[in-house]
Structure formats: C-alpha cells, structure tokens
Amino acid sequence: MTTYAYLGPAGTFTQMALDAWAPAAGAEHRPCGSVDAALALLRSGEVDGAMVPIENSVEGGVSATLDALSSGDPLVVVAEVLVPITFVLAARPGMPLGQVRAVGTHSHAWAQVRGWMEATVPDAAYVPTLSTAAAAAALAGEGEHAAYDAAVCAPVAARNHGLTVLAENIGDNAAAVTRFVLVSRPGALPERTGADKTTLVLFQRDDHAGGLLELLEQFAVRGINLSRLESRPTKDSMGSYCFSIDIEGHVLDERVGEALLGLKRVCAEVRFLGSYPAAHGTAVRVTPHTSDEAFGEARAWLRSLRSS
User: What is the DSSP letter of 290?
Assistant: First the structure.
C-alpha cells in the first residue's frame, strides 16, 4: 500500500489537493499537524510521498514549506496541484455573527479574509491555528477547548465538524488559488511533457554587488522564464539569504541543463528540487535559438573545432 502524508487534519485544502491528484486506489492518507511533520515522515521512509502547500496567489510563498525543502535530506517535487480557495466563517450552533469576538484560523487564511473581517466583525481578534481544519475541529470541541468563537475554514471542514456557517465566500479575492506540491524522495524523474516546471534553491558564495544578477543571467541568456523568485534567510547570519526559484522547463531540456551547469559554477550550492509537469498544462514557449536542436548544433560545432 502506498502512503501519503499531508498537512491535516482532515478537511484541509491540502487534503483536497491530495484527493484531486488522485493517487492509486487504496492508498493511505496520513494527516500531519505541520509541514515539517509531513516531510519528516517522508524523509524517514514512513510514507511514500507528502502533499504540502507551497504558494498562494494572495499571500505568496509558504515559508514553512520553502524552508523545509531548502535544508535537510534532499527531497524532490514530482507533481503540483492548483486548488481554488473558498472560505466560510463557521461557529458552533446558536452563535450569532454579531457576538463573534475572536476568530481562529491559519495565518495564510487570515491574510486572505482580513478585509472582510474588518468590514463585518471589526472587533473580532485573530487567533492563529495550525490549519483551517484544526480551527474547525477545536471549535467543535475535539481536543482542547477553542479560545475563539468562530473559525475561518473550508466548507468541507465546517460540514465535517457539525458547525453552522455564518457567512460564505468571505475571501477578499474571489480568484484566490493555492498551489500544492507532491514531494517524494529522490528517484526517477517524471517524464518530460513540454509543459514542465523545475524548482531550485540557490545559495550564493558571498554577498556582493550584482550577485543576484549573476544568477539570473544564467536563465536569461538561455531563454528560460522564471515563474517564481523568492529570497529566504539561510538562518546562518543576519543578511544571509538563499533564493527559491521556479523556472519553466525540465532538467532534460538542453537549455535548462546548460543553465544548471552555469549555476553550479557560480553558486556555493544548487539544490535541485525536481522537474515535474506544470498544473496548467500550457506548453513552454521556446525560441528557435534556445531549442534542444540549437544547443545540439552548437555543441557539434564546438566539437568539430576541437578535433580539427
């Protein structure tokens, strides 16, 4: 039996992503209280994969996931799933909206409903929780008693825990989407599809003027588009950062391989976090002079010069 960990408990958007990815029939889903816990199970070999959030269209990168993947035993992304995010405000039966004085939810969820909260229940305090589903579960009396009157969660979490929905579609951005990634231990690469992403973490040798430009040039001169670029502290010292990057293309593409060679020369470390099919399925646009054929012809030309 194949086992997948995910950021739980049941009813989180992460579980929705895992269900949408549709792993093999009969697979076991194991909820975890944090991203670190899910990836720790994967690194120890207790599970075969882990579904975790990595990016939100409103709040940006999920720091817990980015940091966990940039350190520790190597892991790779093998798939991604995009989940539209719809929030409700839920409470125990009998609690009216006008009496809500504290609201529990995950920090990323709160960032996406802050405007609605300030307009509707401006006096309600925010209480952080490990996940949106955990907020709903605690409010329903599962585990420790909740220190809040209502929870921001997914509609399915409200239903699962018997809560009353006080308001629907409370997100400030109706088009909000969260990107989730399925992570595994290093192994065979997913096949190249022509609509792929590659995720990397780049560590500089030192901090100097033009250092980031030096890294980005490795992509620009080879016609590689970046779809995400974020700096994260390395935790070594104040001002020490690494760069978490998504690029369009697969490591088997000649232009991507050449870029990685260039990065390996100029970086202290290049952490390869996988090449995998992009969820949108749109083919990567490749200019003629950066195609595999163009790189092959250039390499053959150089060989002919060296052998003459």
Answer: G
The range of the structural domain enclosing residue 285 comes to 188-308
* DSSP, residue by residue, 180-206: EEEEE-S-SPPPP-SSEEEEEEEEESS
Q: Indicate if 207 and 181 belong to the same structural domain.
A: no
Give the containing element (helix H, strand E) for 17. Answer: helix 13-21
Q: Are residues 62 and 182 in the same domain?
A: yes
How does pLDDT run across 28-56, given as a tens digit for each residue? 999 998 999 999 999 999 999 999 999 98
pLDDT (tens digit, 9 = 90+) per residue, 130-175?
889 989 999 988 655 678 999 999 998 999 899 999 999 999 988 8
Q: What CATH code is carried by the domain that includes residue 147?
A: 3.40.190.10
Residue 91 CA to residue 93 CA, distance in Å, equals 6
pTM to 2 decimal places: 0.85
